[in-house]
Specification:
about 375 residues, alpha+beta, Creatine Kinase, Chain A, domain 2, 7-stranded antiparallel beta sheet, two-stranded antiparallel ribbon, 11 strands, ligase
Length: about 375
């Protein structure tokens, strides 16, 4: 049986190359780029909530080599598009420098501003969303219910947002703290079935709190537009290899969960409140401190928890041909550090947050 397809969406900051400050040129970048319109698979360049952002998407991929190549290509395409306007693209979860973001001129976003106020202003954050193919909504929900304990480690390994409005936040992923301000964001309880998931979504919409189904901002959900399960917990990764690692682990988690469901295995009995604690710890220290271990829900070194995650999905990784690559990619990020560690190292070396932003800017082809 061939491996499930996997695709990745990445959000980026648009920066002034000279100052490192975000630039509100998202709409102009898209207008000037001939291939900006995404295709049916979601690949291409799109705008985002704020004009200081740009989003890319890969096509569904079977192999990690294919995914890595597409991630590098889409990053290069975004950098080239921004360069036409004299801007740079940077994979940063938050802006290191102070910024007053501007909302993109889209009617839906205007409604969000009216309803959520300053929460919208604060959402100049960039994440990484992984889509894994599923055969049905029932299969997807079975996977959603079973991957819950392992989502926080994915945030830890992707952490790339330590600075907020010109200061060190004390978190490796402050983006996750900002994102949690949405009323529909974060960890979730098991749904039990596709019908249970649909009833949950319909119930959320019936409260008239969020605008639409697109604002059901759970850490993982069923995609509205594609036959995929979408994991949304990660920061945009500083290094494309880290995005490949996150995607491989997500695919392994989905496949392992579906196999467990088919074998009659139950849903792991962990409270949603504990998952919130696990996510907070992951965002606080990334891979440099302790995470909550899903086997005990007690603190353990991040490397041990990530190793346990790989062991949990080992059979799926082996059958997809991903195990060797995942072992190497995980060893790489643990050795060199996450994007958050890179940002702090640049700040320590230069004393400049502008240098932090400039260091992350992707070279224009």
């Amino acid at each position: 049986m061939s491996a499930r397809t996997v695709g990745v969406e990445e959000e980026f900051l648009l920066l002034d190359p000279g100052s490192g400050r975000p630039r509100a040129v998202g709409g102009a970048v898209l207008a000037a780029w001939d291939s900006a319109e995404p295709d049916a698979d979601g690949a291409g360049l799109t705008g985002e909530l704020h004009r200081e952002q740009l989003e890319t998407g890969t096509r569904p991929c079977r192999t990690l080599d294919e995914l890595g190549a597409q991630l590098r290509n889409t990053r290069a395409e975004a950098a080239a598009a921004a360069a036409r306007l004299g801007a740079a693209v940077a994979p940063l979860g938050t802006s290191p420098l102070p910024v007053e973001p501007t909302v993109s001129p889209v009617e839906r976003y205007a409604r969000m501003v009216q309803r959520f106020g300053i929460t919208v202003d604060d959402q100049l954050t960039c994440g990484c969303h992984v889509h894994v193919a599923i055969d049905s909504a029932e299969e997807g929900v079975a996977a959603l219910d079973r991957i819950r304990p392992w989502l926080a480690p994915l945030l830890a390994v992707s952490a790339n947002s330590p600075f907020w409005q010109g200061a060190d936040s004390g978190h490796d992923s402050f983006r996750s703290q900002v994102w949690s301000r949405w009323p529909s964001a974060g960890a979730y309880a098991p749904f039990g079935s596709a019908q249970g998931y649909r009833e949950f979504v319909d119930g959320v919409l019936a409260t008239d709190t969020v605008l639409d189904e697109g604002m059901v901002y759970l850490d993982a959900r069923l995609s509205r537009d594609h036959p995929t399960l979408e994991v949304r917990v990660a920061d945009v990764c500083r290094d494309p290899d880290d995005a490949v690692l996150v995607a491989a682990l997500v695919r392994g988690l989905v496949e392992t969960a579906v196999r467990g469901w088919r074998a009659g295995d139950g849903v792991p009995p962990v409270r949603t409140e504990v998952l919130r604690l696990a996510a907070w710890r992951a965002g606080r220290s990334g891979v440099t401190g302790d995470l909550l271990h899903p086997a005990t829900w007690r603190p353990a070194p991040a490397a041990d928890v990530l190793g346990a995650l790989v062991a949990h999905v080992a059979d799926a990784l082996d059958e997809a041909g991903d195990r060797t690559a995942v072992d190497a990619l995980l060893a790489g990020v643990l050795a060199r550090g996450t994007g958050a560690q890179r940002q702090r190292a640049v700040r320590e070396r230069t004393g400049s947050l502008a240098a932090v932003a400039q260091d992350a800017a992707l070279p224009a082809p």
